[in-house]
Specification:
The protein has helices spanning 8-15, 25-28, 46-61, 65-77, 82-91, 94-100, 107-115, 149-155, 192-199; strands spanning 119-121, 124-125, 138-141, 166-169, 174-177. With 201 residues, the protein is of the alpha+beta class. A hairpin with a 2-residue loop joins strand 1 and strand 2. The chain is globular, with a radius of gyration of 18 Å.
């Protein structure tokens, strides 16, 4: 399965939520895409509801099926509530941390910055979006990339106090992951227990 590169508005309408960020179309067409989208009101099975939640999480974080399953298996082996640990592992991905720090306007843009070697972890360039950032590690913009317009535009006016698990340093153009976020601090509208139930079948 290749990474989804189609129209993001179509996916957002499928879930009825702006999972890729602000989406003006949702306010006008808040119903599923397709010819019968506005009229379709089929009852979804329990399995269908669980699958939908997993798909939503995958699209939100830009993770492929195999990567998602590996993360779930790791979460299930880790001490704690499996669903919450899964979200914490997704939040700890380097591309997501770059996005949470406001260095990029979206996770897709953050992924591109990482791939193009604009991001460092503890002073070393890391170009793997799935790299798992650990508590205490510092994620920053590479010195010669600090003047990039896309980064400057993203950081302009960004509220760095939104995420209490990240400590931002303006001079460094980076921040430290203080600890894994608590579930209450993760703003994504994902019912992680449904994902756990799906994989438990």
């Amino acid at each position: 399965m290749a990474r989804y590169t189609g129209p993001k508005t179509k996916i957002a309408r499928k879930f009825g939520e702006p999972i890729f960020g602000a989406d003006k179309v949702l306010s006008k067409k808040n119903y599923p895409p397709g010819q019968q989208g506005a009229n379709k009101r089929r009852k979804t099975s329990e399995y269908g509801i669980q699958l939908r939640e997993k798909q939503k999480a995958k699209y939100t974080y830009g993770v492929l099926e195999r990567q998602f399953r590996i993360l779930f298996e790791k979460a299930s082996r880790t001490k704690g509530i499996t669903g919450e640990v899964l979200l914490q592992l997704l939040e700890a991905r380097l591309d997501n941390v770059v996005y949470r720090m406001g260095i990029a306007p979206s996770r897709a843009a953050a992924r591109q910055l990482v791939l193009h070697r604009h991001i460092t972890v503890d002073g070393k360039v890391v170009n793997v979006p799935s790299y798992s950032v650990k508590a205490g590690e510092i994620v920053a913009v590479r010195e010669k990339s600090k003047s990039l317009e896309v980064i400057g535009d993203a950081l302009a006016g960004f509220n760095h106090s939104k995420y209490p698990w990240i400590e931002w340093d303006e001079n460094l153009k980076g921040g430290k992951l203080l600890h894994m976020p608590e579930r209450a601090d993760i703003p994504e509208n994902i019912k992680e227990q449904l994902i756990v139930e799906l994989y438990s079948k």
